[in-house]
Amino acid sequence: MDLSATQLQQPRNQGDSTFSKKKEKIFNASYHISSTSFTDAATLLPKNIRTIGLDISRSIASEVLIQQSKKDHSRKCFKIISNVM
Fold first, then answer.
1. Residue 7 pLDDT greater than 70, yes or no
2. How many helices (H) and strands (E) in the chain?
3. Could you give the CA distance from residue 71 to residue 69 in angstroms, rounded to a whole number?
4. Which pLDDT value is given to residue 39?
5. Burial (0-12, 13-18, 19+ Cβ within 10 Å), 61
6. Compositionally biased, Polar residues: which spans (predicted)?
7. What is the CA radius of gyration of the chain?
8. Would you kindly state where each structural domain of the chain is located, as residue ranges?
9. CA dihedral defined by 13, 18, 20, 23, rounded to 10 degrees?
10. Distance of alpha carbon 16 from alpha carbon 25, whole angstroms
11. Quick one: pLDDT at residue 42?
12. CA 48 to CA 83: how far, in whole Å?
């Protein structure tokens, strides 16, 4: 597809000062909400990180115990088989 003859279009509402003022008002209102949300998120983040860290630590510890139990069970079975033979 040849697009060489296509002309670029100017963005809509580029020179519309009313549009710019409305956009600025919307930005200012959302900025306030966003900064509050950001502050709340930043406050909760350390607690969430600690909670996730504890969950991961428990999960790893459980997996280590399971693997250790499997090893111990395998050793016991091997000893039993070795004694029988």
1. no
2. 1, 0
3. 5
4. 85
5. exposed
6. 1-18
7. 32
8. 21-85
9. -110
10. 15
11. 87
12. 52
Q: What is the pLDDT of residue 80?
A: 82
10: amino acid identity, one letter: Q
Tokens 């004694």 sit at which residue?
A: 83
Structure tokens at 67: 């693997």
- How many CA atoms within 13 Å lie on the side-chain side of 54? 5
Tell me the pLDDT tens digit for each residue of 14-58: 555 666 666 666 655 555 566 778 888 889 999 999 999 999 999
CA distance linking residue 31 with residue 6, whole number of Å: 38
Matching residue, tokens 């600690």: 50
- Report pTM: 0.45
